[in-house]
Write a structure and sequence with these properties.
Two copies of one chain form a homodimer.
Chain A (H helix, E strand, L loop, with lengths): L1 E5 L3 H13 L4 E5 L12 H5 L14 H6 L2 E4 L3 E6 L4 E6 L2 E6 L2 E4 L3 E3 L5 E2 L5 E2 L4 H10 L5 E5 L3 H12 L3 E5 L12 H10 L4 E3 L4 E7 L2 E6 L2 E5 L1 E3 L4 E3 L2 H6 L21 E3 L6 E2 L6 E2 L4 H14 L14 E5 L2 E7 L2 H7 L3 E9 L10 E9 L4 E8 L4 H12 L24 H13 L1
Parallel strand pairs in A: 1-2, 1-7, 2-3, 7-19, 9-14, 10-17, 11-12, 11-17, 12-13
Antiparallel strand pairs in A: 4-5, 5-6, 8-18, 14-15, 15-16, 20-21, 22-23, 23-26, 24-25, 25-26
């Protein structure tokens, strides 16, 4: 069997490695238009901030790692067309075209950055921030500079902003939404995050008009203000790369390539995973576009099982995230209250400020949690903020939400306890009981 | 309505406070034979080690805190009998007896320490380690001393042993079982814990014969050896206090007071919670005795709901624990492999040694995880060891086990990721997939 994978991002490469673990014999062939593969985009802020020494360190594997596993890897190669009737693809490298057939085709084509809506007179010292090349260019660009402006960005941008501020840069973050990280945090916790971490200047509701160049500096006009900067980082708004899927005749949904729970497109023997597909939201039951590295990897691992005889479903998403910004972590799962308002879902919410450890324990970090539940008590969202690692804490909520747990049922669940790491009544339980009382 | 609670440990006091939150009107009356209440027994090792300054700091509330909430609190008062026909109890204080009636009676009578099986010539400088009084006596006893011996103890003992070693004491731990913490860890991880944390001397399979006194020192004969010590800490083996329950005619199971899922005993209007009851194991479906502070508090919170009109069930336990010993944490949930062997349950297990954070992240802590699954893939146990806080990490497994998740299904679950706190493929998923391959 020949399995052809288009795309060597998190989903394509994870699929190839996991397929090979389960299957010694199939031919596995990957095509990517890029020269550099297998790095961790989430680590770009850490290199910019100097916590990790160089971009080379975040490259997980060289191409030979895959080739040694008998995975064929075509770098700098564009797949130009798909013929699903004859089950073949055409690709181009160094100006030469070639065609090969496939038994199974996996589209892991990812996403493309879209251009910002405001005018920019020239792109010197203005960068997007999505891949390792952007990271390298930014690193070069900020040398001996002082003033950096970020425009509306998600985790990778906020993390980078704080990393640069930590290193003495004067960083301003212009957010076009009413609060930062609007996909993950409601205004209470995003404002708290900004307040606690005060070395980046934030401006929300920033309506960016244009960017112009004045000598070697940039000027950004927003609302009725003009600020200047040495280097500007653009928003990273992504759109799914669906052209090959369209060419193959795959059904495209409202947002991206449509797949079923087995990650199959509407065309036989063609699968799609990663940033090019749309997924179902566990909370709303509707389709959504939610590109995330964790989703891409999960889809790849599930598809590797499905293609080798262990059918597992890919389940609707709840968007479980964690991120370190400055000295704090935030985490989120499910929907925010502002999203609930937007779609007209009535919810009851509550915030608590508590501590991570037993009350009497020294060196105790603050913990802010917001939870929201539907009127029937079903938990639909949770946001957290703390100086302590929140990754597993939000994973617990992710399990609770995917299990459709009602807030009152959290009290039935076992949580571990020791005074140096936890509280005898887990704050999630305390919060859930407060919400259940509000609901009554 | 008059609710009478016998016992003011974690279960009795939590029940009273939570009842009062839901119910302004009922009379709530607590009886306890002790003078001191509302402290955190789990914090005793931290006071012994000096991390918390004094035993006074781990007292969460004074009696007045409860009295201010209109909870009647009778300290130093023995409840001597229960008459379930007339719905009354008799109690004794300062030699005087009195009787009151109840509408609802809650037995939160806790457990008693049993005497060790070996001979002890006199009890000077020999202490049990269960309550705050023991803690104070030990603190006094170890002053200007050097050699401390612990005998077979669970978390509170192991934690204290390391806390004292940290402060320069010469600490030996004699474990009667083949490995330390046998209820929570199999030998691989308990040996690893001992190896990594090397400032306490452990002797396993120690068959203690007797303790004698020589001048001001103690001599302990075990196996064919004799060691001497200044102070000895005894095992804390507990038996449920069931005498009042028996008097009331409540059914007693193989281990302790029998309750149903609503925490009702077999006698109408009598409930029982905390260390005096037996519970059902989620894994085996059979009754077991598993006294734990977290269980006591959970039962109390659930009963507070049930007595005020929101019936919630108390679910079978999976024994989710976390503990800090020296510089490491261990955590455990479900059953151990040695327990599975003992009850004849066939399981497949696997251990991984991994890192908490992304591979390239500096200051990355080791993480050891063992998981065990039944032949159908159902996860039945998990043990972890790390320098980083494991409390929420084990809570995730607790949710997985109570949901009867199969190892392969873990790959369907969302886990959060950021390189500074997690790995893109959660180690639990990696481990689960390895086990599912072993099962095939």
């Amino acid at each position: 069997m020949r399995i052809v994978i288009v795309g060597a991002g998190a989903s394509g490469l994870t699929l190839a490695s996991n397929l090979r673990k389960n299957d010694d014999e199939s031919e596995i062939i990957i095509f990517t238009k890029y020269e550099e593969i297998a790095y961790s985009p989430c680590a770009i802020p850490l290199v910019l901030g100097g916590c990790i020494e160089s971009f080379d360190e975040i490259i997980m594997h060289e191409a030979d790692y895959y080739r040694d596993k008998n995975i064929q890897l075509h770098l700098s190669t564009n797949v130009t067309s798909v013929d699903s009737t004859n089950k073949s693809i055409t690709f181009e490298k160094d100006g030469k075209n070639d065609t090969i057939t496939y038994d199974k085709l996996v589209l892991a084509t990812g996403s493309d950055l879209i251009n910002p809506e405001f005018d920019i007179d020239n792109m010197d010292n203005i960068h997007p921030l999505t891949n390792i090349d952007d990271g390298r260019l930014i690193q070069e660009s900020i040398k001996d500079k002082k003033d950096i402006v970020f425009i509306s960005n998600l985790s990778i941008g906020i993390e980078s902003a704080y990393e640069l501020a930590k290193n003495g840069y004067n960083v301003t973050f212009l957010e076009q939404s009413p609060n930062i990280l609007p996909l993950f945090l409601d205004n209470e916790l995003s404002e708290k995050l900004v307040e606690l971490n005060n070395n980046v200047t934030f401006e929300t509701n920033a309506n960016i008009k244009y960017i112009t160049t004045k000598y070697s500096r940039k000027e950004i006009k927003y609302n009725d203000k003009i600020i200047s900067a040495d280097v500007i980082i653009l928003p990273n708004i992504k759109v799914p790369s669906t052209s090959l899927a369209k060419m193959a005749g795959c059904e495209i949904g409202d947002f991206a390539v449509k797949i079923n729970e087995y990650l199959e497109t509407s065309v036989e023997d063609i699968y799609a995973i990663g940033d090019c597909v749309e997924v179902k939201s566990h909370i709303t039951g509707t389709q959504t576009y939610s590109p995330a590295g964790t989703t891409a990897v999960r889809q790849a691992m599930i598809l590797a099982n499905n293609l080798t005889g262990n059918r597992i479903t890919f389940e609707p998403v709840v968007n479980t995230v964690v991120s370190q910004v400055g000295n704090y972590y935030y985490a989120s799962c499910g929907i925010t209250e502002s999203f609930a308002d937007m779609i007209g879902m009535p919810v009851v919410s509550q915030i608590i400020e508590t501590r991570q450890k037993a009350r009497y324990y020294p060196d105790n970090t603050r913990l802010y949690i917001k939870m929201l539940c539907k009127y029937d008590g079903t938990i639909v969202g949770c946001q957290m903020l703390s100086k302590s690692d929140l990754s597993s804490r939000i994973d617990v909520l992710s399990f609770a939400i995917t299990n459709n747990l009602k807030c009152r049922e959290l009290v039935q669940k076992e949580f571990s306890y020791s005074p140096s790491v936890a509280r005898i009544v887990n704050p999630l339980v305390q919060l859930a009981l407060e919400i259940s009382k509000k609901i009554e």
